[in-house]
Amino acid sequence: SEYKGQDLGERETREICKRLLDMGSKHIILKGIRRGDEPMMWNAIASREGSYTETGHPCVEAMMHGTGDLFASIITAGIFSGKDLEETVVFAGKFVHDAMVYSLTQEGWRERGVNFEPFLSYVADFCAHERSRVQAPELSK
């Protein structure tokens, strides 16, 4: 089918997730979903058992190198630490958002990409603690 870009309604997002689940995946995370002019970035989480949820955070109107890799790395760390998938997606989305906001204050961000290294301890804390004890960092303050 034709590529529809990032601007997807919930019906389209659910259909994409269903098609990917039908290929054999247990879980799907569809990231970076936009909805028209809405100032939010959405991530969808679907499972073979039929669950579907979306999490969102404010959209940063900038494109930066490394944000997708950072998101995937945090998801991987959460999974290997035994964290809940939805909780991990929420944390990863907020972490990437806040790292992007911080990066915008740094000279040369367009060339360097997202600056997350000063905040890696938040990821370690998230992975090491019980559910709900560690919140995503407030880097944008």
What is the gyration radius calculated from CA atoms? 15 Å
Largest β sheet strand count, sense and barrel closure: 3 strands, antiparallel
The total of beta strands comes to 3
Order of helices and strands: HEEEHHHH
Molecular shape: globular
Low-pLDDT regions: none
Q: How many helical stretches?
A: 5
The computed structural class is: alpha+beta
Mean pLDDT: 90
Which helices and strands, and how do they pair?
Layout: H1 10-22, E1 27-33, E2 40-47, E3 52-58, H2 67-80, H3 85-103, H4 109-112, H5 120-128
Antiparallel strand pairs: 1-2, 2-3
Q: What can you tell me about this protein's structure?
A:
The chain is α+β, with helices and mostly antiparallel strands and 141 residues long. It folds into 2 domains: 1-59, no CATH class; 63-134, no CATH class. The chain contains 5 helices and 3 strands; from the N terminus they run αβββαααα. The chain has helices at 10-22, 67-80, 85-103, 109-112, 120-128, and strands at residues 27-33, 40-47, 52-58. It has a 3-stranded antiparallel β-sheet with strand order 1-2-3. The radius of gyration is 15 Å and the shape is globular. The termini are far apart.
